[in-house]
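Take a look at this chain, tokens included, and explain the fold to me:
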Amino acid sequence: MGFYDFVFGYFSRDLGIDLGTATTLVYAKGEGIILCEPSVVAIEKETGKVIAIGNEAKGMLGRTPGNIIAVRPMRDGVIADFEVTEMMLRHFISKSHNRTAFVRPRIVIGVPSGITGVEKRAVLDAAMHAGAREAYLIEEPMAAAIGANLPVSEPAGSMIIDIGGGTTEVAILALGGIVVSKSIRVAGDEMDEAIIAHCRKNYNLLIGERTAEQIKIDIGSAYPLGEERTVEVRGRDLVTGLPKTLTLTSSEVRDALSEPINTIVDAVRMTLEKTPPELAADIIDRGVVMAGGGSLLRGLDKHISQETDMSVYVVDDPMSCVVYGTGKVLDELETLKKVLITSKKGV
């Protein structure tokens, strides 16, 4: 270890980052989750100056004047806008270190299992430019499984379904690696878009992303509820152009969500069809684990269980599973290095 490595290591806290489409979570070694903010950046159009990042910027989504745009630099789990992602990462890293400039942390970042080599390099470069000393990537289903305390290093099979904002990851894991996986770009965001499309098609009502997300949280479900619910929705009438209020029922929201949910179920089926028989037997015994914010949709575990004839359960803290996994890798970097897919070190 050189002098600079010693100095940087002394001043910096190693970080695990779940760089999500909807939310970014940061885990600091020895401290747990220290940051959980929306992956949103507000920018001044003409100058490109960043106005706000995270919670403050999310409040501006759909409400900005003409000269300010609120953007989500991550789309479908990968970087859609490199420069903005780098700014967002730098902000979260410095915030995690109480805005101290003299830090160069080691960072482990969770990425979708289906990303390309170019996309991997983009994430690593963004992390290095944002001030990392060393950057490592881990596939999200592996990180989620480690965060959920699944025995990924054992010769027995484990199955995880990680439903985030932009991607759904389905994976069979054994012996510290991913045996079979399927990554689809259908997840929480597609569910919101399905609700927006339903309101537009059936009621000529235009609603925003935040409203659609709130409807999903309030009354969304994938399986019939014991007691159906309703919610008041406000938006703009596409015929008159005026503000309008209507009442949506949970059963029609369930119908609206059926297409993205069926796509997720198909991905689960396809993964099971490719699973070696020995591992399939293990999964029948152990059941399927669900993680990610999307798994919080009411009755989704029941629906998947009914469609696959397997026991399915949601982990205790699905939103934080991936970032806890990155944190555990940081804590045992030498022993768990084999689960990392690629890395980059600073000069």
The longest helix spans residues 250-273. Residues 100 and 299 are 44 Å apart (CA to CA).
